[in-house]
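Let us practice reading a record.
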Amino acid sequence: MRSLIQEAFLLFQKNKFKDSLEICLKILKNDHNNYDANNLIGVIYFKTKKFNESAIYLKKVIQINPNKLEAYNNYSLALCQTKNYNEALKSWNKAIDVNPQYAEAYFNIANVYSTLKDYPKSIENYNKAIEKKKNYKEAYNNLGSLYAELNEYDKAIEIFKKAILIKPVHFNEYNNLANVYYQFKEYNKAIENYNIAINLNPNFALGYYNRAKSLEAVNKKNDAISDYNKAITLQSNFSAAYKNLGNLYMELKILDKSIYNHQQSLKINPNISYLPGTILQAKCGLSDWNNFEKDKEILEKSIINGKKTADPFPVILIYDSPFLQRKVTDMFVQNEFVKSKKFSFKRNTNKKIRIGYYSSDFHNHATMYLMANLFELHDKTRFEIYAFSFGPDDNSEIRERVAKTFDKFFDVKFKTTKEIVHISRELNLDIAIDLKGFTKNNRFDLFVERCAPIQISYLGFPGTTASDCIDYLIADKILIPEECKSHYSENIIYLPNSYQVNDSSPKLSKKIFTKKDFNLPEKSFIFCCFNHNYKILPDMFETWIRILTKVKNSVIWLLIDDDIAKNNLRKILISRNINPDRLIFANRVPHSEHLVRLGLADLFLDTFPCNAHTTASDAIRSNLPLITLKGKSFASRVASSLLSSVGLEQLITETDEDYEQLAIKIAEDKTFYNDIKNKLKKNVINMSLFDTKLFTKNLETAYEEVYKNLLKNKKPKSLVIN
């Protein structure tokens, strides 16, 4: 019998589980209480992931010999795999009864409580494990990770440093410590410890990946790219590294490399979240429309079927569907954020209403050019205003301008969610304004944790947040008509005129530009579009081609940086026997110069379904007529809102055909064109779009109304500001 058991063990060690199992079963026919055979069968079933069968045999092992600690441990581990945690805990406690010094039992009990999110009991048992076994690295590491998860930064650091003192030093200890520093945004300290981990193990793929994330955070993008590539070299199936590298290339606007790396990530892990939508957006940025309609259809079906194939932003860009936008945002919020937390706020005894504005765009960014004058005009006798900036400090004029308008300007880019929320609550804010939503570099987690009793989404994200943590969304009657309100989770604050704030006195360059400065033909009709080119979709470009064909002496002036995108658009024109030189590409210039050069164009052609936003109001301000196609979604109605506020509803169309015909009429009918220009010039001065004082007054009225509602302990409700 002994020789058979030895043979079974040898086969097991060679991973010949089937052969080993056969021998053990033969043994049990003659000796069903054979300890070694039952134990080995239980272990084989565990190794082959037949956990229920494993538990049956391992339980029998305990019955045969109730004093074997290993048997209790193996049995309990099998039970955990079947999620029978209560029985597993009982088994480990029996092992402790056998040997009160059994540190591994305390360790595993702690792991179970951690899984069950009973964190106090988990911490208690990790500490007991360490008490029984002084140099128990695994217990130190798990306890440190738990403290980090609980945002107990100092305790996590202390525990991981103790783990490092236990010899021999392992690279994982330094990686764990670095992870805590990363989590709490101490990126340079994180990099120092990742460096040590990598020095200890130069083939540590995860170390390079983690260091890359920290390098990104301190704006060392090229070094981050190098580390992501090193991680991929060491671990070819590293899906997350490919994904992050793709995200970084997306941020750097190197879209072809972004697409490649995101596609590689998906090949390795087809279930990785949100990448199909991101890839489709990047392809639009390259004007790569091969299989666009098919990809669009597949993505839509997957979202309807509840798959995590896109985050909210690409859907806003590509689909004119409030239903689909609400659907994808609902899924995104449920998957990425916990339910909004409720707690009691102290009522502000100060007579002034305290407002916090939260954004990563307090720098040279379109949002600031819109909002700067609003911040300056806030009535400081009625309001205190605070800025929370989690974006870069670019030392720009606009950054300096807006920073000094606030009662206090907080640069919080290196602060944790917990720290920012703490500052917000200590200020006793009444209203928190989210200026980002789900756009790039957002911190929506702040609002989930609740910075103020009233939280409002405004300007940055053209759609619903689908979250119970946002009480209100600022809009107007054109953006969200009554029949579309059901697609928004927020209560709507309807402002009169347009929802969009504008600066009444923007800085204008003193430069005098000519068409020659931008390679524009002197005698041609200049169509233009200065939207991000990822907003240009194939259907709209087809309409533009038809316009070009019918308006013979015309060109289209576009703001596109990417050479691949330029070539793709040129190729389309060549395929239609249209001179590709009729597409002219503009470079980026300072905002003050941009506003001046817009005067060289004749007509702004809006995109669909995602309209021009700031670029539309820039055009209108520059007396440049703009035509738009109005859709159903928030983003597809922005330009309609702006045009209505300057009395130019005649430039709003509702079909592709009407859009095309209107563009042609404006280009060919000089009298009609001059009438529009004159009307625009007059209305820009006399109507509300660029009256920042009036806008500020209306917005402050809205703030006061929602605050009064709060003081009455009433639930948030939609309101109309007249």
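A brief commentary: The longest strand covers residues 353-359.
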